[in-house]
Write a structure and sequence with these properties.
Blueprint lengths: L14 H10 L1 H9 L10 H19 L5 H23 L6
Helix pairs in contact: 2-3, 2-4, 3-4
Length: about 100
């Protein structure tokens, strides 16, 4: 769903920070993905989980240069929750039927 927005990772990003934040938000991404009814989109649950991974990568790549690690983690959490609401809104409107 967000794959069209992904670009190559910017030079100089911290692989350690990326892996740390990815690991810390793993349970959140899994929880948010399983709160969405995958049958409304005709996909498997792992596809929805991959949408959240794409969103994580997009937000990290956009904000890692200008945000401190704690603020970046907050941005990631907020964007993932907002993304879930966007997916649910689409699923229960005309697009999902």
């Amino acid at each position: 769903m967000e794959i069209h927005r992904l670009t190559t990772m910017k030079e100089g990003y911290s692989v350690e920070l990326f892996n740390k934040l990815y690991k810390e938000t793993k349970n959140l991404r899994r929880s948010l993905a399983y709160q969405i009814d995958h049958r409304r989109y005709g996909v498997t649950p792992d596809v929805i989980l991959s949408w959240f991974d794409d969103k994580f990568i997009f937000v990290f790549n956009k904000h890692f240069e200008d945000k401190s690690p704690d603020v970046l983690k907050g941005f990631l959490i907020n964007s993932l929750k907002t993304f879930k609401m966007r997916i649910l809104r689409k699923a229960y409107q005309q697009e999902g039927e």
